[in-house]
Design a protein that fits this description.
The protein is α+β, with helices and mostly antiparallel strands. It has 8 helices and 4 strands, in the order αβαβαααββααα. The chain has a 4-stranded antiparallel β-sheet with strand order 2-3-1-4.
Length: about 250
Amino acid sequence: MNNLKEGSEMTFEEASERFMRVFGKQEQKKLILPVGVKLIPKGNEVPKGTRTAEGYQGILWCEAVRIAATEDEVVVINKENVGCPAAAIALGLVDRYQTEPLRGKRKYTDLMETPASPADFTNGLVYACKDSGNMQFTLFGSDDTGCYETLGAALKAVSGMKAIQPAIMDAAVAYPAKKLNITPDVVIIVVKPKQALLAIQGYNFLTDNRFEMSTIGIRGVCADLTALPFREQKLNGSFFCLGARALGG
């Protein structure tokens, strides 16, 4: 992260403090901390979290980001504790075509009659549960139509959801700037419209690039705000998704 002054470097903590100063002047009861995201490739050392990975068993990635932002914690998500197969795919923790469901407590798939595997998400069966005849994957009972009317629409939607594949990551870490002295791969900020305007203007001042947002209302934090910026090295935005709002808080 470069300062506006050429040749000077800004740490994540310094950038976070500047964000809090500038954006804190806006009308907001409680400014939400910027969250650093560090993706840990297989074989690399994983930073310690505020609690053990088992202490966060079954939570969603979007929930982990919320906890880091609002509760000042370091949250480590891995294949064993991630609560959502879709996030596990997006973050590169599991193979998208894995046919075995994730075992143990998983906040998302625990709501299903039969837990869906990563492959069931990738093949559109979860998102078009009614059209594909897989009502065991519904979250809201027999009246649940799924996210898409047809399996074809679901497959097209899934093909546009960014993911870190093949599964090359051991863990994803969400943390506030003061908790870990490491440079994040991605920074997630939560802003109101006027604050978003200031962020976009700052981005444009440095790069002369337009801000183009890509979102579809599914995988709002894991794909839109983590995998896409990581893979494409550019800003993105999201209005979150049902899982992030209803389950991730």
